[in-house]
Amino acid sequence: MARPFINSGSIKRRDQILAVDLGSRTTKAIHLQRRGNGFLLSRFAVLDAPIYDSTLSPEMLAEHLRAVSDALGAKTRLLALSTNVNDTLVRHVEMPRLQVDEMRLVLKHNSRNYLQQDLSNYIFDCHFLPPSNTSNSADAGKAAGAVAKQKVLVAGARKQLVDDYLAGAKTAGLTAEFIAPGLIGPVNAFEMAFPEVFANEVVALVDVGFKSSSICILQQGELILSRIVNIGGDRLTTAVAEAISISYAEAEGIKVGMAGEVEAILESVLVPLATELRASLDFYEHQQDRPVAQVYMTGGSTRSEFIVQTLQNGLMTETKTWNPTAFLQLDLPPQQAAEIEQVSAQMAVAVGTAVAAL
Predict the structure, then answer these.
(1) pLDDT, tens digit, for every residue of 88-137?
(2) Fold (topology level) of 1-193+323-358
(3) With the C-alpha atoms ordered 78, 61, 170, 99, is the resulting torsion angle positive or negative?
(4) Which of 237, 168, 171, 250 is nearest to 209 (CA)?
(5) Phi, psi at residue 126, to the nearest 5°?
(6) Which of 42, 93, 166, 346 has the maximum number of C-beta atoms within 10 A of its C-beta?
(7) Angle, helices 348-357/185-193, rounded to nearest 10 degrees
(8) Under CATH, which number does the domain 195-321 receive?
């Protein structure tokens, strides 16, 4: 899918990578290696984020990345980072037929024309989209004499953020070979886990994060629509904690393990989330005149069957969870081998970032 903001461009193919998803509350990281035509997961880590409500400074990021690297116990210093979904812009744009480097310059100096925002302090990357099947010779004739254009998926992030990531990684003794939009991570992982569904069907991927949830609608292998909804697991946990006067940690456990006991509280947050996600499905189905066949969900909150079922009721579409690590070969320490199924729902961004980097 979308290319990274930073890619070392090394001709030599990487054979292993540390991939880190810097979440708002927890950092998810994996050490992934190439193994024949597949990939080997040798270690994973889930750590508390240093701070929840502001951007990490390069110094704090460096300290955190050192802790992540130590937890993974990996020998490689090559690092792939994903940006937070709220820190990244992902849009479909029509642009003149140019090389990617030229497109980046055009967007840097003319972002208002293409993105309706002044984003001169952003770094951009572009992914070419194939011509629509509905294109015909008549359309081509209308375009005769005009500047040829093509559909492009554009991703952008603040230059300062990317620079901070690079500086933090360097201070930690790591090399940030690859920095990519977090929104694209689940898409990349899903393509590997379900290649036939990815290539042939219309599906929606929903990732329920800490502060926000994302939805990506895929049509036969292309990302057609994406949206960020500012409702996530934090709001669910906070609602439970406040309603029955318990600690945040206790509410987190109840939310996932005993959700049925606080159904009404959870529904008060889940119904608005489902309504927002359903609006995205409606928009796509109206524009494309075809239904979304299934919704696939990831995120720590989706470990609760009640939460998934409640969202399915609101979405009015078959909804299921999926395992982003299912296609990986495993060579984990015994304790992690026993834990991987419990944390796999949180690993979609890290796994997708890693396979893209390799």
Answers:
(1) 899 888 988 888 889 889 998 889 999 888 888 999 998 887 765 544 44
(2) Nucleotidyltransferase; domain 5 (3.30.420)
(3) positive
(4) 237
(5) -135, 145
(6) 346
(7) 80
(8) 3.30.420.40
